[in-house]
Amino acid sequence: MTLVQLEYLVAVDTHRHFATAAEHCHITQPTLSMQLQKLEEEMGVQLFDRSRVPVRPTEIGHEIIAQARVVLAESRKIQEIVQDQKQELSGELRIGVIPTLAPYLIPLFITGFLEKNPHVRVVVQELMTSQIVEKLNHELLDVGLLVTPLENKTIKELPLFYEAFVAYINSKHPLAQQKAITADQLDLNELWVLNEGHCFRSQVLNICNRGGSMANGQGGHLDYKSGSLETLKRIVETQHGLTLLPELSVLDLAEDKLKLVHGFQEPQPLREVSMVVHRSFLKRKLIEALKQEIISSIPEHIRSRKKEQVVGVV
User: Fold this and answer.
1) Where are the domains of the chain?
2) For the domain 3-84, what is the CATH code?
3) Residue 167: Cβ-neighbour burial (10 angstroms; 0-12, 13-18, 19+)
4) DSSP per residue over 66-120, as a string?
5) Which of 81, 157, 211, 230 has the fewest CB atoms within 10 Å of its CB?
6) The pTM is what?
7) Residue 253 CB: number of other CB atoms within 10 A?
8) pLDDT digits (tens, 9 = 90+) for 21-56
9) Helix, strand, or coil (residue 21)
10) Distance CA 76, CA 152 (A)
């Protein structure tokens, strides 16, 4: 049994396809298949059910693959010991970030981080929370930026800041005359929300459950299902009603658009934005540098906010 064979074993489990796994490992499929066959012969067990598409690990295969991941993670720590002795950080950092955070948070820190770490290559993917967790568990990402808590035992959460929700209200709406609103004034007949699958949608509905009406859909003749907060902004501006937005998304609005932004009365509903990693994560110095750069890039009034009323995912 070799570390290389374990790498191939984990690759097949991750991609659930021999050809794709071979491509990921930069070898031919016959080579990968031959090495895994040798591993199975040495162990005297079958690791994969090759009759199924996509390929699936056998019952014992699941247990062996889980241990293989541990062995490989520990072997990489040896490389990190050497890397930690060097003054400059280097390598690749793979970041997954949810869509309601990516366009507003990434621009705040990415330039500064790259300037301070010129030998680091950053790869960013916009993904749903469930996809980020899955990719962390399969070592396809190094770190995720999303909203917590997740209550997932395989993931370690490192809170970064607490971001307030704000209302974006059409200028002709009755609530537009109020500087600050309350949750019990929200009516889902007038509220534009994201498509199902977005954790931000769940958080918005959770706020409404604290006192708002639970009717379904928007009034009028337009029924628009969107996966973009920017689209929801445009709809509110040109049509009617209101939507809820994360605080970072309104920081750079033009003055005429800022008039549509209304905060909540205290205590404001907040969401906890965190960096998440796998419990046995690697690249610790690199990830710590990323964490500090993100925190320093956040406006002071957000960075100094303490945990108060965090709206969880329903």
Assistant:
1) 3-84, 91-161+271-310, 162-269
2) 1.10.10.10
3) buried
4) HHHHHHHHHHHHHHHHHHHTSSS--EEEEEEE-TTTHHHHHHHHHHHHHHH-TTE
5) 81
6) 0.75
7) 15
8) 898 888 998 998 999 999 988 999 899 888 878 889
9) helix
10) 24
